Amino acid sequence: MKFKFIFFTVLCYAFSPIKAQEIYLNRCNQALINTIVEDIFSPPVASRIHVYSNIAAYEVLTKKFKSLRPLAGQIKHLKPIPEPAKKVDYSIAAEVAFVETGKKMIYTEYMLDDFLSVELNTWKKTINDTALIISSVEYGKAVAAHIIQWLLDDNYTYTRTLERYVLSDSLGAWKPTAPEYMNGLEPNWSMMRSFVAETSDYIRAVPNLAYSEDKNSMYYKNALDVYNTSIKKDSTFIKTALYWDDNPNTAVVNGHLTYFIHKVTPGGHWLKITGQMIRNKKLSEDKAAELYAMVSIGLYEGFLSCWNEKYKSNSVRPETYINRLIDAKWLPLIETPPFPEYTSGHSVVSATASSFLTHFIPQPCPFTDSSQLYLSLAPRKYKSFREASDEASISRFYGGIHYIPSLDYGAKQGREVVQYILNKIKTRQ
Fold it and tell me: Does 119 share its domain with 267?
């Protein structure tokens, strides 16, 4: 018998009355993260949900802050949002646009409906103008409709109709792993529309090592490094691997009982860090919108680039290789995700997120990440976003699910994605 247990953090909506400059965008993003956890979206799909919602809010706020440059005309196929027909409060409209856009891409719509209902009731307590609130809500919905029309052409629906991953007989090709032996996740993700390039392969990682079973080869030595590190049972390595696990649906098997622990995705983890920085640095509304939009674009483009590489390289995971050639009973510390090994997704998107945070927040910027308290994991201190990114990357080696080259070249790939985006998108007039 299989039971399902959802490990889920509940957002508390008890907050002080809203002011325009307060961080309602943090609450929006946290509410969306909660919903994504509830609906168990994969990391690439979650990045799509995050990015369109944050772009919707950002585009509205370009009407309020003339120093913000609209993304329309800079990213693929996005046309300028409509002008408001009446006087509106752009902060309310941005929040409504965010939520209504997000609702189009999730299953559990009532969670976002309930969230927005609470938010609007709070706005009503601080703005004694019913007509203004109504017109702001209407405008937010109009912008959401505009963004939704745009997102419907990003190939997502088309990729749902395509053939699933077909297993290869090649010894070096990816194979499903225990405990669920799931088929390859999102094998057609590279067909999704990029915001900044014509195709998803605009950044390619350094070519992966040639597969080899020769004990003197670098491929074998990399696998042996994973194995030898895991059997040391180093407590620091274990804590690091568990802290950055970020598996949205981890299966736990105990005899005949199977249950699932649901957690934030890697992208959700970095967006929670983004929210912490907005709060701790007391960033203004326009800077918060700018940061969320660009970090979200980085996450989306990072997953797009990474998944393009994964299914082109189609590399076998350490678990499969080690079980066949080194130790048949060995298991990684954390669950092996159901997709090819090269490059590491967490390494790529941690590099994109940390690079954008470094770009938009004055440095040096030591910080404490407390985003994993909902899992009873103690906060961790970092001297920089790069240090946190490097730790997130190496955590996949400690966890036993990646070889070192996948981490190093994945991080390099992510940083190159960011530089490409920064050359294409300007957020200030």
Answer: no
pLDDT value, residue 21? 43
Summarised one tens digit per residue, pLDDT across range 63-81 is: 999 999 999 999 999 999 9
CB 237 within 8 A of CB 420: no
User: What Cα–Cα distance (Å) separates residue 279 from each residue in 15, 20, 94, 190, 255?
Assistant: 14, 14, 18, 35, 44
Predicted confidence at residue 251, as pLDDT, reads 74
Instruction: Supply the CATH number for residue 386's domain.
Output: 1.10.606.20
- For residue 315, CA distances in Å to 278, 309, 318, 320, 405 come to 38, 10, 9, 10, 12
Residue 18 lies in a domain: no
* Dihedral sign from CA coordinates of 83, 87, 91, 92: negative
Where b means 16+ CB within 10 Å and e means fewer, 302-315 reads bbbbbbbbbbbbbb
Per the CB < 8 A criterion, the answer to whether 328 and 351 are in contact is: no
Contacts of residue 355, Cβ cutoff 8 Å, sequence gap at least 6: 298, 385, 389, 414, 415, 418
- The DSSP code for 163 is P
Q: pLDDT tens digits, residue range 262-311? A: 899 999 999 999 999 999 999 999 999 999 999 999 999 999 999 999 99
Is the pLDDT at 19 greater than 80? The verdict is: no
| Residue 16 scores a pLDDT above 70 | no
CB 319 within 8 Å of CB 386: no
- Taking the C-alpha atoms of residue 188 and residue 220, their distance in angstroms, rounded to an integer, is 29
In a domain, 7, yes or no: no
Is residue 272 within 8 Å of residue 30, measured between CB atoms?
yes
Count of domains for the chain: 2
Q: What's the angle, vertex CA 189, arms to CA 183 and CA 193, rounded to 5?
A: 165
Is 244 contained in some domain?
yes
Asked whether residue 13 carries a pLDDT value surpassing 50, the answer given is: no
Going by their DSSP bridges, the two strands 367-369 and 380-382 should be labelled as antiparallel
Residue-range definition of the domain harbouring residue 130: 24-157
